[in-house]
Amino acid sequence: MINSTGLNMPTLILLVPFHIPQSTTAALDVSVTVWLRDMVSGATTREITLTAADDTSTPGNTRTITWAWRHPQPVSFDDSNEWKGFAVEYRVNKRADFGGESLTVGMGNPLLITGVPADTYEEEATDGNPRIGGALTPTNGGPVTWG
């Protein structure tokens, strides 16, 4: 769970690292589905499913899922909610046995958890626009400016 009063901006930017476990010869046939949930309203982002096919560029290395979610919580420092809570939720679809262990997609702690003003990035969406890698493009094509 992510709990912060610093996220009271309309868009949540969040990255979750993941890796696909490897056998001695290839990526294991594993799968999980991941989404974010707003803990005040219960709203969720669109789901993204990770499989061995997502381990293409450098097998076994860590990659990230990126969300740019225009979330439904009230926005402002003086709203009725004293905190902003978001949960990273997942469902294991497929496991693989290797080396005497039952494995699936490995995920780490969320990174780059921040709130930004609406229309800061082109990738912002009300469904969270989850994607692998997921560079963010400033809406004006230049560096982000605040003010």
In short:
This protein has no helices and 11 strands. The chain has strands at 2-4, 11-19, 31-38, 48-51, 63-70, 84-94, 96-98, 101-103, 106-107, 111-116, 131-132. It is globular and about 50 Å long.
Features:
147 residues; mainly beta; 4-stranded antiparallel β-sheet
What does this structure look like?
This protein is mainly β. The protein has no helices and 11 strands. The chain has strands spanning 2-4, 11-19, 31-38, 48-51, 63-70, 84-94, 96-98, 101-103, 106-107, 111-116, 131-132. Strands 2, 5, 9, 10 and 11 form a 5-stranded antiparallel beta sheet that branches.
- Report the biggest beta sheet as strand number plus sense, adding barrel if it closes: 5 strands, antiparallel
Secondary structure: number of strands: 11
Question: Which percent range fits the helix content?
Answer: under 10%
Distance between the termini: 30 Å
Computed Rg:
17 Å
Spans of at least 5 consecutive residues with low confidence: none
User: What is the mean pLDDT?
Assistant: 83
Order of helices and strands: EEEEEEEEEEE
Please report the number of helical segments: 0
Shape: globular
Beta-strand level of the residues, as a percent range? 35-45%
* Structural class by sheet pairing and helices: mainly beta
